[in-house]
Amino acid sequence: MKLEKLSRGKFIKTSIIVLVAISIIGVIFINKSKAKYRVTQSIQIVNGTVNYKLADLNVLALYKQKNKGDTSDNNYESITDVPSGNYVVNTDKSYCTIPEITEQQKNIPMEYKDNGVYIKITKKGTKCYVYLDILSTAKDVVDRLGLKVNSTDEGCPAYEDAPSITKIEDTKSLLCRGIDDFGDTYYYRGKVTNNWVKLGNFYWRIIRFNGNGSIRLIYSGNGSPVETGDNALIGTSAYNNSIFNYNAKFVKYMADNMSNSTKNPKNSIIKQVIDDWYESKLKSFGSKLDGTAGFCNDADRQATTSFKPYDRIINRIPTLKCGTPKTNLFTTNDGTKGNQKLDYPIGLITVDEASFAGALWNSSNMGFYLDAGENIWTMSPYSANGSSYVGVFTVDFAGGLGNSNGSSVDTALGVRPVINLKADTQFTGQGTSTNPYVVI
Asked: What's the whole-model pTM score?
């Protein structure tokens, strides 16, 4: 009997230990099972990170374009993982919903970058529907328009970053391949007749197809296509005001502590003129414009008094890349490159672009498509000696490049704005002055 009682006691003690162990294991298993529903995670957004619980944000639907360029609803397929490759958020289709607000929210910043989707959220319960388009390139747009690309044998400069351009082009009509900050770009050069675009009631000339697929245009008439004269401009303006102050900052399109502009002390005079024109004439077309390709105001110094554009142009080695993009490439805040400081997606041509188009340092060219018979501003700084001169490059009335004909920044010269159409822009027409590409 004593032995039997001892065995039963051991059995009871062992049973209790086993039950306690099973209970502990069970609690651990349950907690682990629930943990994935409780864990706070981070989502990277446009300008930082926020912590959120999985219930706070739901990307309810993610769609990927099947065929490039087709934005009809049936050309998107539902996907579960963000794809890798060249994509861009379709901001016209993508939207979010916010609790207690019935309207779809299309102004929440979204971006495809580094094979991920970045969404700026500010309210718990936000639910988003994201459409991803296959990113168009300059080559895609050129192919879509059925354009022939010319070779070096046919007269194009070498395909490289900064080719040597030693002569003007005033007779041939060329479409040449180059390199910009986004990849391959295709630019018009010479006596071009098939690069006319009509947007609303305004006429433009295509300068080039940017590497990101957007289409760079320069103003050329209101109501009818105009090649030369005052009607090829939106007006005249000083670039800036340097009287009694010849500081290098006055070559900048937009810089802190400028005291010239009546509306915005950070704007150059010419930027304010262009912005005012955009507000009154072009703002209604803003959804068709790309602000991410930007406009280059390369204000990096080359020497004590000159800037890098000067060195490139006098040595006849222009580039379509923008030096120090973080400070010199002026973009809107819906992209990843540049300084993202522009209020509106509008600017000016660069002296490098004018050179690729057919102009040359200290040479006239009245036969290429950019010659307006007027002195017009570019966006490229020339020099500043700190005591008597601050200058920005112009394309002069005879189609030449240089500092002649009044490129001191306080001189009133012609203004021809430049814009970029989105890569998926659709056209009718053939690109001639009588049958231009019409934006639809």
From this structure: 0.77
